[in-house]
Design brief:
With 158 residues, the protein is α+β, with helices and mostly antiparallel strands. It has a single domain, classed as minor pseudopilin epsh domain (minor pseudopilin epsh fold), CATH 3.55.40.10. Helices cover 33% and strands 27% of the residues. The strands form 2 sheets. Strands 3-2-1-4 form a 4-stranded antiparallel sheet, with helices on one face. A 4-stranded antiparallel sheet has the order 5-6-7-8, with helices on one face. The longest helix has 52 residues.
């Protein structure tokens, strides 16, 4: 049967075997990266939601508070006593907590933005995971500026 093209069964089995070996090498590497990616995603979302609280306070000309609950691993955006958004950290990964490196902890359970985008007292929100593979800090100054920082082993960097 000259002129017929295709793969033989042996070629397919060899190709699948090589593919299986490559996957078995790659999967453990990815599984160590995933917790770090989930933590980074959670930190960026907290940062974005704190920014949203500030903008909501300015837009509505009302105070907007970001409240954190370390035990429940949640945070909420509250305007005039009504929660407009509540986020559960376990939605990213069950191991993510409001903790920092060494003994760093949240400096205030709630941070309130005024209608001018300012806060009465500065605050810090720390995030890490069970592996303590990385630490993130969302820092809110009394002027209302919000920064996201990562612990590089010796200091916080942007």
């Amino acid at each position: 049967m000259a002129g017929r093209s295709g793969f033989t069964l042996i070629e397919l089995i060899v190709t699948m075997g090589i593919f299986a070996v490559l996957v078995s090498i790659a999967v453990p590497g990815f599984s160590t990266w995933i917790p770090g990616f989930k933590l980074k995603g959670a930190a960026r979302d907290v940062y974005s939601n704190v920014q949203m609280a500030k903008l909501e306070a300015i837009k509505q000309s009302k105070n907007c508070t970001v409240t954190t609950d370390k035990n429940a691993k949640t945070y909420s955006l509250v305007v005039n006593g009504t929660a407009i958004k509540t986020v559960l950290l376990a939605g990213y990964d069950s191991s993510i907590t409001f903790d920092g490196q060494a003994t760093s902890e949240i400096t205030s359970a709630s941070i309130t933005f005024t209608s001018r985008g300012m806060v009465s007292a500065s605050g810090k929100i720390y995030l890490t995971n069970a592996r303590n593979s990385a630490y993130y800090l969302i820092e809110i100054s009394s002027a209302g500026s919000i920064t996201l920082k990562k612990w590089n082993g010796t200091a916080w960097s942007n």
